[in-house]
Amino acid sequence: MDDLKSLEADLMGRIDAAADERALEDIRVAALGKKGTISERMKTLGKMTPDERKEAGPILNSLRDRVATAISAQKAILEHAAMEARLAAEAVDVTLPVASLPRGRIHPVSQVFAEVEAIFAEMGFSTREGPDIEDDFHNFTALNFPVGHPAREMHDTFFFDEKDDGSRMVLRTHTSPVQIRTMMNEKPPIRIIAPGRTFRCDSDQTHTPMFHQVEGLVIDRDTHMGHLKGTLEAFVKAFFEIDELTTRFRPHFFPFTEPSAEMDVGYERDGGTIKIGTGEKWMEILGCGMVHPNVIRNCGLDPDEYQGFAFGMGIDRLAMLKYGIPDLRDFFAADSRWLQHYGF
Ligand code: PHE
Q1: Residues 134, 243 share a domain
Q2: Domain check: are 223 and 174 in the same one?
Q3: Which residue range forms the structural domain that includes residue 76?
Q4: Same domain for 123 and 231?
Q5: pTM of the model
Q6: Residue nearest to ligand 1 atom 5, measured at CA
Q7: In terms of domains, do 203 and 136 share one?
Q8: Is 94 inside a domain boundary?
Q9: SS3 for 110-126, per residue?
Q10: Is the CB of 231 under 6 A from ligand 1?
């Protein structure tokens, strides 16, 4: 019995002194593990006579329980202390001035996307998105580009490798495929814009292989060209924050609209900066038109019942014009000094 008393005293002393959870676990294994000192003694119970066992059993059981309880009490204390230490080490002083931390900026493209979405949201447009990797049907065929039509060549398309069935996916050359996805999945009236990335194999001062567009689409029973002009003029005034605006709709060709137009806005040069609004000169800012009846039909709608307009504009160019950014390629150079200067 003395032997057990000193064993207990020794274990309790070591449990109390355990400095961390690892040391405590070592003590637990040495005492209560399979070959631990207490476990070994429990094994001797089997060889005792029933009378001896009656006496020794409860003593050993209660010893084992006291040691286990002491270990879990010490464990709770150590866990608490470890958490306190970690909280102290990871403390953040929220009263430090922000200027001492590195600061990010909103890229002008993100800023302009947000501005465009907000302006059209006020006019009742909601936002849709489509995939960057498109199939031929959505990017071309459904948009009334027949196979072999020269308008396909105009798009400098990035093609993926041929699939087993001979078809090739493309990086979408414009956001117009979102028109198709929306008309096929939703019932008119439709009033949406579709912002996103677009891709063409083209690179110089004013073209980058990846650029950004916002598409617009309105489909209803008696939407006409007047709605198109009114909507776009209201947008340009809101975007450039001007009251006076002269516009010109120049006839153009897109396979998916008829009639089609490019919209020009008046501008003048004021020193080195461009002022959009009135002025003597014309600046082209977007393509638009009335949705072609073939496109409406390709989406399963009846062109005798529904009609509407669509437009598409380059976001990078709008950002350059509004914020006086001279070179398009800098948008994608990831130069932090440029972002510090032009970011928001
Ligand atoms: N998708 C055309 C382009 O990328 C723009 C456009 C969209 C024109 C919608 C008319 C209607 O050039």
Answers
A1: yes
A2: yes
A3: 2-89
A4: yes
A5: 0.71
A6: 312
A7: yes
A8: no
A9: HHHHHHHHHHHHHCCCE
A10: no
Same-domain status, 280 and 319: yes
Please indicate, yes or no, whether residues 156 and 249 belong to a single structural domain of this protein.
yes
pLDDT for position 270: 85
Q: Residues 139, 170: contact at Cβ < 8 Å? A: yes
Please name the residue whose Cα sits nearest to atom 9 of ligand 1.
311
pLDDT at 263 over 90: yes
In this structure, the residue with its CA closest to atom 7 of ligand 1 is 312
**How many Å lie between the centroid of ligand 1 and the Cα of residue 75?**
68
pLDDT the model gives residue 247:
96
Q: Are residues 121 and 198 in the same domain?
A: yes
Task: Tell me which H or E stretch contains 2.
Answer: helix 2-17
Ligand 1 pocket member 289 (CB < 6 A): yes
Question: What is the 8-class DSSP label of residue 214?
Answer: E
In this structure, the residue with its CA closest to atom 12 of ligand 1 is 287
**Which of 176, 193, 199, 288 is the pocket-test mutation for ligand 1 (most atoms within 8 Å of CB)?**
176
Q: Is residue 201 part of a domain?
A: yes
Please count the structural domains in the chain.
Answer: 2
Looking at residue 175, which CATH number applies to its domain? 3.30.930.10
Q: At 326, is the pLDDT very low, low, confident or very high (cuts 50, 70, 90)?
A: confident
Q: Is the CB of 287 under 6 A from ligand 1?
A: yes
78 and 183 in a single domain? The answer is no
| Cα 260 to averaged position of ligand 1 atoms, centre (Å) | 9
Q: Is residue 159 part of a domain?
A: yes
Q: Using a 6 Å cutoff on CB, does residue 177 contact ligand 1?
A: no
106 Cα: distance to centroid of ligand 1 (angstroms): 27
Q: How many residues does the chain have?
A: 344
Buried/exposed code over 158-194 (b: 16+ C-beta within 10 A; e: otherwise) = beeeeeeeeeebbbbbbbbbbbbbbbeeeebebbbbb
- Cβ 311 under 6 angstroms from ligand 1: yes
149 backbone dihedrals φ, ψ, rounded to 5°:
-70, 135
Read off the pLDDT of each residue in 39-64 and give the average, rounded to a whole number.
92
Ligand 1 centroid to Cα of residue 202, in Å, is 17
Among 2-6, 57-61, 175-179, which is the least confidently predicted range?
Answer: 2-6
Which residues are registered as beta bridge partners of 216? Answer: 193, 311
